[in-house]
Every structure is written in C-alpha cells, then in structure tokens.
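Continuing the batch. This is chain 6 of the set; chains 1 through 5 are on the previous pages. Same settings as before, nothing changed between runs. Recording input and output for traceability.
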Amino acid sequence: MTLEIWFRTEVPQKGRVMIYKVHNGGGRNYQWGIYLTGDSADVYAYVVRPNDEVGFVGENGDYKDGNWHFLAGTYDGETLKCYIDGNIVTQDWSGEIRTGDGPVVIGTWANNFFAGALDEARISNVALTEEQLKSDYENGYVAVSPAGKLSTTWAKIKAQ
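Output for chain 6:
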C-alpha cells in the first residue's frame, strides 16, 4: 500500500496523524498510517500486525517552517518505507498487517486536529516505487483530469 499527502504548518504538532486507518476491536485502535509528531520534527509511517505489534520508520527534520512538505509511506509485505521531501528511510518488517472495517481518517486523531494545511491525500493498494514517489514529489499528481468537467467548464464561463 501507499499513503501520500502534502502538508504545511507553522505550529508545533504532537502526534498529528495525516492519514490513518481505524481498527475496530481489541488492542491498538489503528491499523496503518502516516503522521507528524515531536513538535513537528518527526514524520513516521507505520503498520500494525494482527497481534498488535507495530512496525514504524521515520525521519527527523523541521517541518513547521510554513513550507509544503511531501510525506508518503509504503508497505509491500517485506519493507516499510517513509518518504519525506524526496528522502527515503526503510525498515525491514515483513508479514501480514491488520485489516478491518474501520474508517480512514485524514487530519485528526481522536479530536487532535492537524493545525495547518493538508492537500492531495492519496491511498493506493500497491506500494509505489521510489521512482514513482519521486515523480509524485517533483511533478505532483492529479487523481482525476479536470479537462471537460462541469466545475472546470463553469469556471471558464464565469471568468468570461
């Protein structure tokens, strides 16, 4: 799987989840995600095994500088990876991860809302390669082409 998001903040964040999957049932109440913590100095990607064991990998930096940052996490069944602004950190961590029917949440963790801006959240059911994520970081990604869509056409009409 791959989780991707752009974020910007000037506020020290403590445990602000960008994207995570809620686990309904016993044990830990989460399944996988990417988050910002440590007063906006640490980013992490994580996955949880069915036995509640957590695998995580992250990078230190200063992410409360008011600039846009690209954060992504991937898991391919053997390696957990965290990408931040084109840099990669990996952790060998193989095995099955927890599944369930809980919701996916963006920008909050139990009423701890992200203070800043989030954009272009994307969840994929495949682990994108480093080259694919580098392209997303450098070129952006658009899930749907806006050409010929009603909102694009309406914007053109209103602009005239």
